[in-house]
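Summary for the steering committee. One of the milestones for this cycle was to obtain a three-dimensional model of the protein with fe (iii) ion bound, which we needed before selecting residues for the alanine scan. The sequence and ligand used are listed below.
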Amino acid sequence: MAAPLLLTNIGQLLTLRSTTFKATGPLRGPELNDVGLVEEAAVLCLDGKIAAAGKQRDVLRAAKGKKPVELDCAGKVVLPGFVDSHTHPIFTAPRLADFEQRIAGASYEEIAAAGGGIRSSVAGVRKASVKELAEKALAAFEEMSRQGTTTVEAKSGYGLTTEAELKSLEAIRAAAAEWPGTVVPTLLGAHVVPKEFEGKPEKYVKEVCDKMIPQAAQRKLAAFVDIFIERGAFTLADAERVFEAAAKHGLGVRAHVCQLSGQEVWPLLRFHPASLDHLDWAADEDLPQLARRDTVATLLPGANFFLGLDRYPPARRLIEAGVPVALATDYNPGSSPTTSMPFVLTLACTQMRMTPAEAIAAATLNGAHALRLADRKGSLEPGKDADLALFDLDDYRELPYWVAARRCAATILKGRLLA
Ligand code: NIG
Ligand code: FE
C-alpha cells in the first residue's frame, strides 16, 4: 500500500470536478471548458486513493492524525495524470526508411502500398521474445509517466498471427506488472492484412474472429478489440464481424476510422464502441448520432503532425456538435513516435483551436471515459485513484503554451510518488 501523501501549497489545482454542472458521462460542448480550478489547494492521498482534494485549509483538516509524507508544490500546477487512451507500444524498431521516404515526398499510403508502413514492423515483432517486447513497452511507459501520464491504453497489432498477437499482449501484461501506472490492453489483430493473407482478407478476418479474439478473451489478455478501417486495411463489413466476435467473448470495442479518407461510422454504433479514433474525415451526418452517445471521439493530432498533413481532426466541429472528444498520443513507429501528452495538447490548441482547458479535459477525464475507467480515473475526487501530475508552471494555460518543454516535476501513480 502507498504511504499517506499530502500535496500542499498548490497554486492551481485542476480537479476536473465541475461546480456548475453535473456530468455523468463524458464531457461535451461547454462542459469541456470547466476544469474545476481551485487555487491555494492541497490533495490528500490515502491507500492509493484520493481522500480529499480542494482548498488547503479543508484538506489539512482531513489530514489530521494521518501522518502523511508532505510534498510542497511551491505554488505550482497540479492536475489528474493524463490518460493516454490510444498507443501502439509493441514494436522493436523505429521506421526510418518510411521517415526518409516521406521527407522525399511519398505519402503514408504510398509507402504502405510499396511494402513499408505497418507491415514493415511485423518481422521484428514476430522474431522478438516477450521479454524484449516488454522491455521496449516498459521504456515507453516510463517515458510517458515522466511527462505526467498515469494511465495508458496499449495495443498489439504488429504481430498479425495469432501467436504473435498473443505474444504482444503477454508483453503488454509483463510491462504493466513492472510499471506503477495503469495499463489497458487492446487486441489490434485487424491492423492490416498480413502478407500471407494477401488477396484473402476474409480469411484473415476469420483468423482474428475465430482464434485471436477467443484466445485473448479466455486468457484475459485484452479488455478491448480494435480494428483499422481504411482503404488498404479493413472495411466496415470486416469491422462488424470483428465486433460481433468481440461482443460474443465479452470484450469491449474501439476502432481507427476516418484517418485518411471519409467513411460513415453509424453502422458501428450498435456495438457501443468505447471510442472511435482519428475521425479527421468525420461526416457531418454522423455527428448528431455521436452526440447522443457515450462513444468518445479520440483525436490524435500527433499523427497529423508527424505525417506532415495540412488537415487536422475537426475538434471545433465535433465539440460544437456535442460530440465528446479525447486526446491521445497514438504513440507508434509509423505515424506518431511521441510519448508526450503535453506536446499533443500544444497541437490541439495551435492546430485544432481547442482551448487549453478543453485540451486538458480531453486528455484526462474524457480519456478515462474512452477507456470506460471514469469511475476510477481522470478527475481528482475522493475515492478515485490517486493519479496526479505536478507541473513547474504558475498557470495551467502554460502547459500547452511552452512547446515541447518538459515541465512535469512529479507524477503520482496510485498514490506512489515518482519525482
Ligand atoms: O493510428 N492507422 C493505423 N495505425 C496507426 C499507424 C500505425 C503505423 O503506421 O505503424 C495510427 O496512425
Ligand atoms: Fe493508432
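Key point for the committee: The two ends are 18 Å apart (CA to CA).
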